Every structure is written in C-alpha cells, then in structure tokens.
Amino acid sequence: MSGDFLALAQPGVQQLSPYVPGKPVDELARELDLDPATIVKLASNENPLGASPKALAAIRDELAELTRYPDGNGFALKTLLAERCGVEIGQVTLGNGSNDILELVARAYLAPGLNAVFSEHAFAVYPIVTQAVGAQARVVPAKNWGHDLPAMLKAIDGQTRVVFIANPNNPTGTWFGAEELDEFLQDVPAHVLVVLDEAYIEYAEGSDLPDGLDFLAAYPNLLVSRTFSKAYGLAALRVGYGLSTPVVADVLNRVRQPFNVNSLALAAACAAVQDLDYLAESRRLNEAGMQQLEAGFRDLGLSWIPSKGNFIAVDLGREAAPVFQGLLREGVIVRPVANYGMPNHLRITIGLPAENTRFLEALAKVLARG
Ligand SMILES: *Cc1c(COP(=O)(O)O)cnc(C)c1O
C-alpha cells in the first residue's frame, strides 16, 4: 500500500496553492503559433529597458570562474550595499531574490502555533512562506485597496511574530506615508518583526513614499527587504537583500543556504548598484509610461488604482478574465489578479512606449468586442 503523500504534507502546505507567475512569452508563442518577437509581455513587473550593459559586462567577466563556488558571504555586494544604504555590513542579508529573504524570515521566526499578519490584496508570497512553515496567516481586510495599518495593529496578538507590509504594495500599487509608517512602528509590540517590503522603492524616489532605511535605527524590530529584480532589471538572476539589526541578520544567516546567491548574480548586482544612469533612465521611462497608460485608460473610460510601482491595476468594471484571454489572442500578456481578490482588475506592467501603445490598442479592440 502506498501512502497518501498529499494528506501526509503538513496541513499548512495542503492548503496552499502554488504561486502563479506571469505567462511566459514562449508559452503563448507555442499555444498560438506566434513569433515570440511579436508578443508583448507586461505581466511580471520586469524592467522593459533590458539589463544594464555594465551588469552584462560584469557577468561576462565572471564566466571564467564558473567552476568555483560563489562567495557565500557576498562580501563585495554587501560592502557596496552597506555603503549605499548607510548601514554596517553585518546588517545586510543577501537573498536569492527578495523572496528568499521573506522565506528566511518565515523559517527563522514562524512555526505552528505562531502567526504572521498581512493585508488583503498583498503579495502572494506572504501566505506561501507563512503556511509553508505551518504558521497561521492572518489576513487583514484592505482599505481603499491599500494596507489598513491600524487594523493590522489590532490583528497582532501574543502569537504574532511577523508582519509583512509592502510599500508600495503589489498588485495594487498603493502606498502609505512616513507618518503612518512611524505611528505603526511605534505601536507594533517589540516581539513582532516588521518586514517592510520595498521591492519597488527605487521607482518612488522623490515622491512622498518614506525610505524604510530612515526607520532602521529607531526600530530594532524592522527589516527592510529590497530587490534587484525590478528597477535594477535583473529579475532572472535572483538577487535581493534584507537590511535589519545585526542580530536579525545573524539569525537569517543561520537558516540560509550557504551559497544562496550565485556568482554571476553577485557580479551583476555589484555593477548594477553602481550604474546610477540606468536607474535614472528606468525611473524616467516608468514615469512616462505610467502617464501614457493613465491617459489611455482615461480615453477608454476606465478607472485605475493610482500606483507608485512599475505597474498599474486597471478596473474593467466587469470580470477581467475574458479580457485577459482576448488580450492573449492579440499577443499581449498582462496579469489577471482574481487570485488576489481582484476579479475585475488587470495588472499591467509599465513597458516601453511602443509596448504600452500595443497594449492600449489591443485593450480598446478587445473591449469594443464587448
Ligand atoms: C517582485 C516583488 C518582490 C521581489 O521578488 P524577487 O524577484 O524575489 O526579488 C518582492 N515583493 C514584492 C511585493 C514584489 O512585487
């Protein structure tokens, strides 16, 4: 007799659904027999600029060393990040994407009988890492699509060890200000680690979004997570980082895979972090594209959730799934967000001007069909 290996999985895992990524270009090309070059993918908040040439050069230089293990301590990258962020090297934790940081937090601080608090419409990885270690996910209803920080405070109890908050949030693009964040951090009990997920923070420079780093010194229970996947344009390489007290960094380091960031990713991230021109161009392109999409939605009579990320959630005023399918047939991949409790929205990543135009034209066509 064989065991029922679904029923044998720990209960939290049995209740999980796997993360659903954006549809890959090659998959749609296969399904519709299309030339992949004609497909526009605005589904995964990837940087449409292509990677920084400096990052690509750094990867080529590193290729000769593929036979060796990477620097498991990521000394060069940690040094650059510590300098840039104004923290000590011992406060930096490197991750295989910032997803890895979220998972390290869950593995280190959550367990059956404990819980993590996060918002409705929050990033899909929070429930996954929480339930994967048998902890309870406490989902707090959103307010105007964004985090209701006072309600999240009330959801914290003696068994809470982690609160995940994203600023801006994905997939809604919503954000909170410095004052709200400060009030929240003041009131969070000292035994709760606040993970402030700033995956899109580089896009918000110069806006009214707070910089999580400004709060690190005052709040030892704060961890700020960031990534090279979005504004730095290195999603495929999987590099992210956490900034926290040295104590929290030490704890995360104990559960981390010894070589969780590979050597090509380390080299590319070192180059990317110093390529400020690339970052500025990413930001400029994003702002222009955001305006282009907003203008396009206005023309189509659609409303949207104002966003501080490199994506925008548009409200179709009806079920979005058929529109998503219609867009696929036009060779345009966007992101349905029904699994985030948003069945009438689609999330569109800001693309190059021509990609945004392709999307808007396809959307107009699909909507006109009714
Ligand atoms: C994209 C994203 C991340 C980062 O993903 P990685 O590629 O693993 O760094 C983290 N949080 C949010 C909210 C995101 O949207």
Tell me what the structure shows.
The chain has 370 residues and is an alpha/beta fold. It has two domains: 11-41 and 277-368, Aspartate Aminotransferase, domain 1 (Alpha-Beta Complex); 53-275, Aspartate Aminotransferase, domain 2, CATH 3.40.640.10. It is 39% helix and 15% strand. The chain has helices at residues 11-14, 25-32, 53-62, 75-85, 98-109, 125-132, 149-155, 178-187, 213-216, 246-255, 263-274, 276-299, 321-329, 353-368; strands at residues 40-41, 92-95, 115-119, 136-140, 160-166, 193-197, 222-227, 240-243, 303-305, 311-315, 332-333, 335-336, 345-349. Strands 2-8-7-6-5-3-4 form a seven-stranded mixed beta sheet, with helices on both faces. The protein has a four-stranded antiparallel beta sheet with strand order 9-10-13-12, with helices on one face. Helix 8 (178-187) links the parallel strand 5 and strand 6. The mean pLDDT is 96. Bound molecules: pyridoxal-5'-phosphate (PLP). Pyridoxal-5'-phosphate is lined by residues 45, 97-99, 123, 166, 170, 197, 199, 227, 229-230, 235, 240.
CATH class of the largest domain: Alpha Beta
Distance between the termini: 54 Å
Cα radius of gyration in angstroms:
21 Å
The chain-level mean pLDDT equals 96
